[in-house]
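tl;dr need the bound structure. longer version: we got a ligand (flavin-adenine dinucleotide) that a collaborator sent over and nobodys looked at where it sits. i said id run it. heres the input, straight from their email, havent touched it
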Amino acid sequence: MTTTAAPATTPFRFFDVHVVRTRRLGPSMVRITFGGERLGDLASGGRDQRFKLFLPQAHQSEPVFADQGENWYAAWRVQDPAERPLMRSYTIRAQRHDPVEVDVDFALHGADAPGAARTGGPASRWAASAVPGDRVSILGPAVEDNGGVDFRPPPGTDWILLTGDETALPAVAGILGWLSPGTQAKVFLEVAHADDRQELPTFADADITWLVRDEQPADGSGTLLETVRAAGLPEGTPYAWIAGEAGCVKALRRHLVQERAFDRRAVKFTGYWRRGASEEDLLAEYVAGTAAATDED
Ligand SMILES: Cc1cc2nc3c(=O)[nH]c(=O)nc-3n(C[C@H](O)[C@H](O)[C@H](O)COP(=O)(O)OP(=O)(O)OC[C@H]3O[C@@H](n4cnc5c(N)ncnc54)[C@H](O)[C@@H]3O)c2cc1C
């Protein structure tokens, strides 16, 4: 298995892009393909490569930045919240060079609820109604070996555990596509509807279990946690990657570390969203936490 240590730096830069085409992958997932003059300089590290997406406000035709240079974050924070771009985290599902294109798969949460145009969040709503020509910005990696890739199994890993919901599906697909031939992988994925399941091409020896929320019993059983808890897992040294709803991610991690005795350093876990909290709420908590930690130092 190929392994790499995380680089110390995160060389990211802005790319102004436009929607080239959209394709519905299932009832609650849409693939948006982006193009852009300088997008060829974006260098995805593959796997779970993260980036920041910047969306225009409803009254704007493109994101309006105070500054796209090195001080962008400080400038963005003090910009009028009604004017500054909405910032969200997403995964690069695929990158091609001829033509220069990047695919991003968006989970359309609330897409099947009554009044779907008003439910979900701004990014989900934007994706649901995106059309060719729509303009957004991407803060993406400028070198392949960058700090926005978290999936990094250490040397000596015998097998891989991957688990997450539909927001993690693009990353899991990227990881499965990256794994060396024959790598043993146990994969547990939860999606809203049966038709949201996807083909996940891989050379790995992957055993994939799909959980479909609208087929789950009303008593709340059949969750990701229960399914992983009941699963027989391979022998040997594991490396686990977990992403999705923060509460579920936390419970899965606790199970692996406390009940399955996984080495906590071999469990990479990321809350991709949290029930009841927008990404602005999560960012505000993070900033407040950072400030509190700084105050204590
Ligand atoms: C590193 C990283 C990579 C990510 N990659 C992807 C990706 O490739 N594709 C993808 O679809 N998502 C991905 N996400 C998750 C995505 O950023 C969040 O779902 C985000 O909250 C969506 O923004 P929004 O504007 O639609 O909703 P927000 O305004 O952030 O939230 C509005 C409300 O919707 C709820 N909500 C948010 N997401 C969901 C959901 N999926 N299901 C149900 N309710 C939800 C929130 O709890 C909140 O109550 C990633 C997150 C991270 C941190």
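gonna send this back to them w/ a short note. Helices lie at 72-78, 122-129, 169-178, 224-230, 246-259, 279-296.
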